[in-house]
Design brief:
It contains 6 helices and no strands. The chain has 2 domains: 62 residues, no CATH class; 50 residues, no CATH class. By secondary structure, it is an all-alpha fold.
Length: 114
């Protein structure tokens, strides 16, 4: 695994190429459809991406995953014990999905359409 900081190319400006590509895609759509409204939405879109997606991703990545970040959020709200209810709810939801999912090995959608 390489741990060097890239100081050239597109990563010199951003560490998040997906957000940049969404921004460039919005510019492309505005040009393709000749739509001024899409161009005016560039700044709000960039702010939403910057302050919701990137900041949240950075906060989660600092602690190694979503569960520690959620636990710290509950702790900062003064409801540390709510994390256990959250965790139990996630486990219950996972078990519910797991038990109601079809076995695709025996019940394949591809077999039904043949």
């Amino acid at each position: 695994m390489h741990t060097t900081i890239v100081e050239s190319g597109p990563y010199r400006f951003t560490r998040n190429p997906i957000c940049v590509s969404m921004f460039l895609g919005l510019i492309g759509l505005a040009i393709a459809f000749d739509n001024l409204w899409l161009l005016t939405m560039l700044a709000p879109f960039a702010l939403v991406v910057r302050y919701s997606v990137v900041v949240a991703r950075n906060r989660v990545s600092k602690f190694g995953g979503t569960a520690p970040a959620v636990a710290l959020e509950f702790k900062s709200l003064g409801h540390e014990q709510w994390f256990y209810y959250y965790l139990a709810g996630i486990i219950f939801l996972w078990l519910l999905i797991y038990t109601t999912m079809r076995d695709t090995k025996h019940d394949s959608a591809m077999q039904r359409h043949v």
